[in-house]
Fold each of these.
Amino acid sequence: MTVDAVNPQQITVGVLALQGGVIEHISLLQKAAAQLSSRSSTPTPQFSFIQVRTAAQLSQCDALIIPGGESTTMAIVARRLGLLDPLREFVKVQHKPTWGTCAGLVMLASAASATKQGGQELIGGLDVKVLRNRYGTQLQSFVGDLRLPFLEEGEPFRGVFIRAPVVEEIITTAGDDEVTKLKGKQVEVMGTYPKPQGTGEGEDIVAVRQGNVFGTSFHPELTDDVRIHTWWLKQVVEGLKSGGRDVQAQS
Ligand SMILES: NC(=O)CC[C@H](N)C(=O)O
């Protein structure tokens, strides 16, 4: 199933507003929308950016951002508000474009390790296992320069990592129900960052995409760098214009 074709003149993007950097995401989305319209020679869509706290608000959205915060708390609150199943439907059945940052990435993973005792509920959508709090506690927060191949050439992106998760495993179980629902789209690594000293060789995966679902370990909304928001919004518009073909097919 694909996202229904919508009038791309009117696009509503929601930011899940249970906790975390909601206002910051909306502010960067507004800047990104202004940039898209100033760069385009043809009319760009009219965007509405709304905070989502109810299933009714979610149903108005063509795309969604799940911000950072605390995924365990977010799951509990979403469950209490009756939002968890509508969110699963939005991401995994309607295949509407969804981007999770930090705790949002945890929520969009199909599995997580280093969870609290008893585990935690997830939305799923990305066939990955995330390792929560990979870099330690709040005190080990850092800003690291990232080279993100999907962005235009330019300065490295300043990645803000706060108790950040990383993708520790890409789950490729053939015949897995979720994979089938995601139209066979495979997980694509969109960004990596060198493993901290003493924690192994190579790079950690800090950004992934699978079909319409995108996740970053870091917090672009806590910078004034609008590039990822602009890139994502463009993917959303292109996907809706083509009647719901998912964003992975666009690039
Ligand atoms: N900055 C964040 O969003 C932290 C995420 C948090 N460690 C979690 O697992 O939910």
Amino acid sequence: MTRLEARSLTVELGTRRALDGIDLSLQPGRFTVIVGPNGAGKTTLLRSLAGLAVPTKGEVVLNDRSLLGMPAGERARAIAYLPQGGGVAWPLPVAGVVALGRLPHGEHPDRLPKTGREAVASALRSVGLQDLGRRPATALSGGERARALLARALATQAPVLLADEPVAALDPRHQLVVLDVLKARARAGATVVAIMHDLTLAARFADEIVLLHGGKVEASGPPETVLTGERLAATFGIRAQVLRQAGGFLVVAESPLPDLRQ
Ligand SMILES: Nc1ncnc2c1ncn2[C@@H]1O[C@H](COP(=O)(O)OP(=O)(O)OP(=O)(O)O)[C@@H](O)[C@H]1O
């Protein structure tokens, strides 16, 4: 069981304070979704949790060990990270791209042992790409490429999975398929964190929502306590209706509120 924590985490990028004293505890078995307006610090937070952004103050701690002090190989086995809108530069077959997720285990993509081959096949199946394994990854649609890159992260079978906008490029069916996969990973004991902009989908799938605004945690907890009309107005600058219904609730963004900075 792997617990990931941000403790008083502050990150400065150039002259900008992207994260400002974040305290967060991400639990195994839970699917946490980070939401917030553009520029709120979501990607910076996820990159910090992956050990890719260096804190100015505070730290990220994995099972009570500081992430930055951990050997890179160990960290790569513990944390799988899907970057936002990632691309594929080389015409590797899709299965070869997914096999790169086995590198942290010392498994070469061309010589995968049985466990590695099974992990790759299972990851491809779980995102619905089992029939495209031989296709060059440069010859995929945007949504297929996004699913291939998610499959690479899944194939690592790390106890922590961090995904930056994993469903942004996907059609509605594949959004549900992928969110089911992420939730199932959490239910199997992983610590799963994703960034999303679709608040209705976030509310439906997340165990916990973390609402970021201006580099700070504005609110966190179960979707129904975090996503209130008042908070959506204060953070996203929208008038929104939050409609409760069986199986979750629907967030309908009705109109932008006047931008007070203009
Ligand atoms: N390399 C950088 N140098 C300076 N400032 C940066 C850099 N990268 C990001 N920022 C700034 O840091 C803040 C947080 O950026 P971040 O990418 O974490 O936001 P985000 O919440 O993920 O946004 P989005 O929803 O648009 O993806 C923003 O104000 C952004 O302009």
